[in-house]
């Protein structure tokens, strides 16, 4: 866009933009960062119900034309309905991402084998509470996976100060060990090896207390200078 054209977009306004990739986007303004020249607009969802929206982040440096279809004055924009943002959810995701990076750094610095790190990362995609105890993987403080991190290396993790692991595990611990063993077995079955037969069914449902992590929604990078995603958090 021409630098001599000064544009301000108020929340609630409806705009139509055309990118340098000849892609047209029309929607309602959610936010506008004047200094960074980034415009956020929402459009009807390409997938999903009426309560969903596609949200686009548009870099105006890649925009060739902007038309304001409906202008909302600055005084009126404060009353515009904005999508709900769950701050607690954002903070939880941030803490989780930082913790996962910290645990991964510990694994690399601790001299863990590549196989151990891969098993660890595979488990963190399904179970949130996965940590290290030396070179052993601890899952939900109940299951311990020792080297070489195969299904047979899954055993109950002792909480007793004596460290006696010969005691017969409780039914709950046995269920947890069996579930983690299935996850580890699936990981190894999914590794590309000759004459290996992959598991044709997923692990059974996790035992009580083992909450599975939801798969994050993936954003799609369009060739139009914008990010597009469908989200239930951006509601009309």
From TrEMBL:
Ranges annotated as biased composition (Basic and acidic residues): 189-201
One Pfam family from the record: LSM12_LSM
PROSITE patterns the record matches: AD
Protein name: Protein LSM12-like protein
Domain of life according to the entry: Eukaryota
Region spans: Disordered: 150-170, 189-236
Domain (AD) ranges: 83-192
InterPro entries referenced in this protein's UniProt entry, alphabetically: AD, Lsm12-like, LSM12_ABD, LSM12_LSM
UniProt feature, compositional bias: Polar residues: 222-236
């Amino acid at each position: 866009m021409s630098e001599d054209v000064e544009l301000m977009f108020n929340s609630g306004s409806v705009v139509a933009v055309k990118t340098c990739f000849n892609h047209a986007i029309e929607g309602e303004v959610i936010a506008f960062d004047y200094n960074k020249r980034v415009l956020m607009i929402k459009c009807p969802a390409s997938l999903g119900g009426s309560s969903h929206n596609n949200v686009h982040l548009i870099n105006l440096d890649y925009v060739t034309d902007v038309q304001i279809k409906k202008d909302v004055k600055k005084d009126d924009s404060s009353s515009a309905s904005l999508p709900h943002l769950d701050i607690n959810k954002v903070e939880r995701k941030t803490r989780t991402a930082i913790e996962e990076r910290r645990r991964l750094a510990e694994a690399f610095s601790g001299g863990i084998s590549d196989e151990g790190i891969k098993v660890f990362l595979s488990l963190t995609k399904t179970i949130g509470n996965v940590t290290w105890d030396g070179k052993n993987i601890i899952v939900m403080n109940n299951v311990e996976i020792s080297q070489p991190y195969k299904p047979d290396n899954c055993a109950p993790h002792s909480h007793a100060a004596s460290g006696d692991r010969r005691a017969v595990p409780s039914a709950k611990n046995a269920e947890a060990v069996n579930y983690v063993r299935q996850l580890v077995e699936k990981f190894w079955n999914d590794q590309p090896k000759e004459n290996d037969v992959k598991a044709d069914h997923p692990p059974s449902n996790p035992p009580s207390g083992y909450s599975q992590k939801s798969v994050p929604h993936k954003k799609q990078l369009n060739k139009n200078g914008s990010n597009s995603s469908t989200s239930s958090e951006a509601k009309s």
